Amino acid sequence: xxxxxxxxxxxxxxxxxxxxxxxxxxxxxxxxxxxxxxxxxxxxxxxxxxxxxxxxxxxxxxxxxxxxxxxxxxxxxxxxxxxxxxxxxxxxxxxxxxxxxxxxxxxxxxxxxxxxxxxxxxxxxxxxxxxxxxxxxxxxxxxxxxxxxxxxxxxxxxxxxxxxxxxxxxxxxxxxxxxxxxxxxxxxxxxxxxxxxxxxxxxxxxxxxxxxxxxxxxxxxxxxxxxxxxxxxxxxxxxxxxxxxxxxxxxxxxxxxxxxxxxxxxxxxxxxxxxxxxxxxxxxxxxxxxxx
Length: 292
Prior knowledge:
Elements: E1 5-8, H1 15-28, E2 31-34, H2 39-42, E3 47-50, E4 56-57, E5 62-63, H3 77-84, H4 88-94, H5 97-107, H6 109-116, H7 120-125, H8 129-140, E6 143-144, H9 149-178, E7 180-184, E8 187-191, H10 206-212, E9 219-225, E10 232-236, E11 254-257, E12 263-266, H11 271-281
Parallel strand pairs: 1-2, 1-3, 3-5, 8-9
Antiparallel strand pairs: 2-6, 4-5, 7-8, 9-10, 10-12, 11-12
Helix pairs in contact: 1-3, 1-9, 5-6
């Protein structure tokens, strides 16, 4: 169902209703209205009703959470839209800010600050004119048509969020299919071979992949295709001291090693040679691999 209108409440605006509307605008290119919904709006699946209306009926494009009550789940309007798109689990995994936004909207600033382990005043220190101006301008409008500046900004934000979530899922699926864990000098290394086609940013998503597999505390270095050449990049994971890549700068097939030793680039392409370079770079520092 294509939406011709997304409707949300008038008055004060929050991050969750702004972003939920931004996603729907990005998907449908629809106009936006800020007013209380009528029954006809709630019954029309071509009208997305967000953060108002007292109903969660995704089949009718109704995405309100206020009826869940104090003991209900910590879902905001953005959560419900992401669920309808099948992107909620990935958003919770890939967007560290989402749970904070949910809690802030559902439980308020005091409980959210306590959950974060900070005082409420600290939350205000995290705001910027980007947050304040966008939400204030959004709160003031009664309607937005495609082509208006704020509508364009919301569309861009929604498009970028959708692109990020979809591409990160693709990256993790790619890593799951092609990467392997190898052992070098007693340490676990993630090795990602060159594929055709090669992702635009071969190393993107590796940390999230390791987290998702419970390997973030075990893998101490990464080997991945160099997007700027035909060789490979070698780097520490979480700056673990087990490898110092300044140790391989004199090797004939190494064309760059950072002075601090955390990354190097090589024209080598064979797995055997890459392992040999890692063996040279191994420091013997760090004791047992992390997590062991």
